[in-house]
UniProtKB/TrEMBL annotation:
GO terms for molecular function: dGTPase activity. GO terms for biological process: dGTP catabolic process. This is HD/PDEase domain-containing protein. GO terms for cellular component: nucleus. Residues 314-338, 598-617 are annotated as: Disordered. Residues 47-377 form the HD/PDEase domain. Keywords: Coiled coil. The keyword Coiled coil applies. It holds the Pfam family HD.
Length: 746
């Protein structure tokens, strides 16, 4: 049976029995022990919430939005169905008023009634038999102008396609030149108004609209996807698949083994799908899903649908190799519907849990409300208002009609609050200077014990896996949570170390003795790494953190050049179907400073994909980090440093997140259209992202405050010199360093 949860954010929420079954499994309960905001809890004492409650909240909101959209779909279809029935009555042109009373008794027709109706066509008589008496009464009450509208609909239905298209073209033409029309076209244009044609086309699409109706199975699948979308998170949430796994990849770079390859492709969304499958198999829930009408067999569309909502499938590449050189074939391939769980007519369902087009989805709605509640900061976005105005609309996209979730045009400015709120949470919490110091230390500790035998996790095959390998086996991964922090911190000492003398007594062979001695040395090394990891975590608990000795961002001129280049990339991307080379010159006026003018060209033969550009940017950033860390290490070879990049954006890098959003007008609620940024709000940003570099010094524990201060000043000077040489603005004067809890460190 359904279960009611008392949630601090959404109040009392009731979840479907199937969702309760999923919640009551070890794989889902694991989320109770994974902090939603990772290391933020070490900065904000209220940020103690976990992935468990967030997932329940997303499931609830996913159901609320899906049900609200369904109600509006039914409201949209109901008047069309009534109009269609009245139109069918009107089509019976031979219908005489004196027959109406008899028609109300059609279910009990006498031979005399049939005789009086013999002039009607048989198919018309069948339609009349199906009509309800209430519809006949409604027909009797119609006013003259309503009857006239019905007559027009019948006439439009009898027009062939060519004439109908010609009529639409004439209606969209300017008034001049219409006097030259032939009499038939003039008569047609005078007879039918644009609203008549629009009403007719809506009526013609009634069956299509019915196919796009949200079903009960759709709602249940959307809720399951919302519930399970974060099953794949590791310890401290994004820390694990971000900072920790990135460090593991760097450490093992160049090694040709399956573990490294798998880690390169791994994301927490992929792990969520694998954990979801594991959860169903281990707890026998596929049969329960079938009980509630879901298709979950080998080719079960509902199971595929749930997985696709958690992670969008990779776009399929063209099967024909020759298509690689054919621009049109490539374009067709890229526009191919990538999903298998639902047809394209229900494309909007993929925008509820994780919206890849605009980023407006219920995942954000919950974490905005929940994170702000626990962080103690205001939430400027009202998700309930969004649900109230959201509806499914037709959108003209890529020369075809698609369906999207759209909001009212008057809500466009309010939707920017979503992304401003995201920026605020990231700036004040997720990218907090102290939080990042904590996570760097946690990363260092986990790497030190990654392959320690006492922290290995048993897999489904009985193998003992490293911490970084557990994500490849869901049985092992189920056991990996934030508890690893406490396990390292409070690791029980007193284990008896192998003794070389004891081992030599057991083994007579000299070669075996050497191998044993080597293992002893390896064990000692692992114990030293463990002790070092424990010391790092002790420092975290004592608030003796790594020091932030520098923050910098590109100087305005360099930043403008970079942004101009990004803008040109966007312009060139829009014009990529052209055959010629695009040459673009842009000038940016910087007020009192000298204007910046840059010329760029686009060579179609050597154009780069978005993935190539991301990879290029990442590699350039890695070189900058290596260069900066190298400069600091030259200054003090015994010290260690880590440079991280901090990005603050609206969720779509430097793109306007609402560029792919659509809105409907009050007078046309079924059609979605984009709204230019200039029509929304005059003070919206020109750029939607900001980046900076941060340098952390892994200061030794034994240093005094005076020694730390002296070294910090030295490192800050080196950092300042590097910034001048590389076009960066040093922000050190504005930002206090992280470290021991002193005034100003928060």
């Amino acid at each position: 049976m359904a279960k009611v949860f008392n949630d601090p954010i959404h109040g009392h929420i009731e979840l479907h029995p199937l969702l309760v079954k999923i919640i009551d499994t070890p794989q889902f309960q694991r989320l109770r022990n994974i902090k939603q905001l990772g290391g933020v809890y070490f900065v904000y004492p209220g940020a103690s919430h976990n992935r468990f409650e967030h997932s329940i909240g997303v499931a609830h909101l996913a159901g609320e939005l899906a049900k609200a959209l369904k109600v509006k779909q039914l409201e949209q279809i109901k008047p069309l169905e009534e109009l269609k029935e009245l139109k069918e009555l009107k089509k019976l042109k031979k219908l005489k008023p004196e027959y109406l009373e008899q028609l109300k008794k059609l279910q009990n027709l006498t031979p005399q009634d049939l005789k009086e109706l013999q002039e009607l066509m048989p198919e018309d008589l069948d339609k009349l038999k199906k009509l309800q008496n209430s519809k006949l009464e409604d027909f009797e009450k119609l006013k003259a102008e309503e009857l006239e509208d019905l007559e027009k609909l019948v006439e439009l239905e009898n027009l062939d396609f060519t004439k109908l298209e010609k009529l639409k073209k004439l209606q969209n033409s300017k008034s001049e030149g219409l006097e030259e029309l032939n009499p038939e076209d003039k008569k047609m244009l005078q007879r039918f108004k644009p609203k008549d044609v629009e009403k007719f086309e809506k009526l013609e699409r009634l069956d299509e609209l019915k196919k796009s109706l949200i079903s009960d199975q759709d709602v249940l699948c959307v809720q399951i996807a919302g519930l399970c979308h974060d099953l794949g998170h590791g310890p401290f949430s994004h820390f694990f698949d971000g900072m920790f796994m990135d460090a593991i990849k760097r450490d093992k770079k160049g090694k040709a083994d399956k573990e490294v390859t798998d880690n390169e492709k791994w994301t927490h969304e992929k792990a969520s799908i694998e954990m979801f499958k594991h959860l169903l198999d281990q707890n026998g829930l596929k049969e329960v899903m079938k009980k509630y009408g879901l298709k979950v067999d080998e080719d079960g569309t509902d199971l595929v649908f749930i997985e696709e909502m958690i992670k969008k499938p990779q776009d399929e590449k063209p099967q024909n190799d020759a298509a690689q050189d054919n621009e049109h074939q490539n374009n067709d391939a890229s526009k191919k519907w990538p999903y298998k769980g639902r047809e394209e007519k229900k494309s909007f369902l993929y925008e509820i849990v994780s919206n890849k087009n605009t980023g407006i989805d219920v995942d954000k709605f919950d974490y905005f409300a929940r994170d702000c509640h626990h962080l103690g900061i205001p939430n400027s976005f009202d998700h309930q208002r969004f649900v109230m105005f959201a509806r499914v609309c037709d959108v003209e996209e890529d020369r075809k009609k698609t369906k999207h979730i759209c909001s009212r045009d008057k809500e466009s400015a309010n939707l920017y609050d979503i992304f401003q709120q995201r920026l605020s949470i990231h700036r004040r919490a997720c990218q907090h200077k102290i939080k990042m110091a904590v996570e760097i230390m946690l990363k260092d500790a986990l790497i030190l014990v990654d392959d320690h035998p006492d922290f290995k996790i048993k897999s489904s095959k009985g193998e003992m896996l490293n911490i970084s390998q557990a994500n490849g086996d869901m049985e092992a991964y189920t056991k990996l949570t934030d508890h690893v922090f406490e396990r390292i911190l409070h690791y029980q000492e007193g284990r008896k170390e192998p003794s070389s003398e004891e081992e030599r007594k057991k083994e007579q062979d000299l070669e075996q003795a050497r191998e044993i001695l080597q293992r002893v040395e390896e064990e000692r090394k692992k114990e030293q790494d463990l002790e070092q990891a424990r010391e790092i975590l002790k420092r975290v608990m004592e608030r003796d953190l790594y020091r932030c000795v520098g923050q910098a961002k590109k100087k305005s001129g360099e930043e403008i050049k970079e942004r101009l280049k990004n803008l040109v990339n966007d312009i060139q991307e829009d014009g990529k179907d052209r055959d010629e080379v695009n040459n673009v010159t842009l000038t940016y006026n910087m007020g009192n400073e000298k204007s910046i003018t840059k010329e760029y060209s686009y060579d179609k033969e050597n154009s780069k994909t978005p993935e190539d550009k991301k990879k290029e940017k990442k590699e350039a950033l890695e070189k900058i980090k290596e260069d900066l860390e190298g400069k600091l290490s030259e200054c003090s070879p015994d010290d260690k440093f880590e440079v991280i990049d901090v990005t603050l954006d609206y969720g779509m890098e430097n793109d306007d997140p609402l560029i792919k959003a659509y809105f409907y007008r009050k007078d046309n609620p079924d059609k979605g259209e984009p709204i230019p940024k200039s029509d929304v709000f005059s003070v919206l940003p020109d750029w939607f992202s900001d980046e900076m570099l941060r340098v952390y010094w892994k200061n030794p524990k034994e240093l005094t405050d005076e020694q730390i201060k002296t070294k910090e000043e030295e490192f800050k000077k080196v950092f300042n010199d590097w910034c001048k040489e590389n076009g960066y603005k040093d922000l050190n004067k504005e930002v206090p360093s992280a470290g021991r809890a002193t005034s100003g460190n928060e």
